[in-house]
Amino acid sequence: MSLFAIGDLHLHFQSVLKAPGQQKGIWKNHEEAFRRASEKRIGPEDTLVLAGDHSWGKDLAECEQDFAYIMGLPGRKILLRGNHDRFWDAKKTEKLNRQFEGRLFFLQNNYYAYRDYALVGTKGYTFEGPFYLDGRGRIKGWDAEEKERADALVERELERLRLSFEAASRDGYTKFIMFLHYPPTNILERKSGFTQMAEAYRARQVIYAHCHGEARFHDSLTGVYKGVEYRLASGDFLAWQPLKIMD
Asked: What is the C-alpha separation between 205 and 177, in angstroms, rounded?
């Protein structure tokens, strides 16, 4: 029994593709590439965490074929909310879990038991600009109003993540793997509320997505930092090979 992860599938079997660049290069026929890779590496007793941005569909009706594709992948599937997942109202996560019980698990304000670990997660958020550059391309400032808005969203997501950690802790779990859609830090940060929470609860790993396109692969932490291992799992970064988190 192994645990795998990947993010940013951006499926669009029924919906309009909002990012035309996702039709060429590493993205060309990526659905088929990932399906084949999953069938080779993931078994029926394994678990796959999909770290957000599952579908371009605007509602559940437009996601029907995308969900059929996901449910057809091998293993147990856990879904994290991404910034493009318009079908998912965070207040209705319990309804989604009832609707897809036994087929998909939606990770939000709850946790998933994996052996003696609790898998916890939330969409997350981080300030991504606008940044202002000097003549040498160095950041000299940023949009203060957008930064204030981002800070409020970060606090909301931190509270949602805390609910997950606390629910698992009350049930006796002391070992955690933490999942985010957004990276835990932005390009200006070495620490954030998310890294501090990972350290406070002694999470073994933090898995995140969202940073896709080669220019974004190094936007946040990777490797071990203050005892926590940070790993990027966006699909194009992984060349559509599921990332093994643990055996």
From this structure: 5
Strand pairing class (243-246; 3-6): antiparallel
Q: Answer yes or no: are the C-beta atoms of 236 and 209 closer than 8 Å.
A: no
Interval 157-178: pLDDT, tens: 999 999 999 999 999 999 999 9
Q: What is the average pLDDT value for the chain, to the nearest integer? A: 93
Residue 125: C-alpha distances to residues 62, 81, 107, 154 (Å): 25, 11, 16, 5
Is the confidence at residue 155, as pLDDT, over 70? yes
- Could you give the count of Cα atoms lying within 13 Å of 12 in the half-sphere of its Cβ? 16
Q: How far apart are CA 53 and CA 3, in angstroms?
A: 19
Euclidean distance between CA atoms 21 and 50, whole angstroms: 21
Amino acid residing at 94: E
* Structure confidence at residue 20 (pLDDT): 67
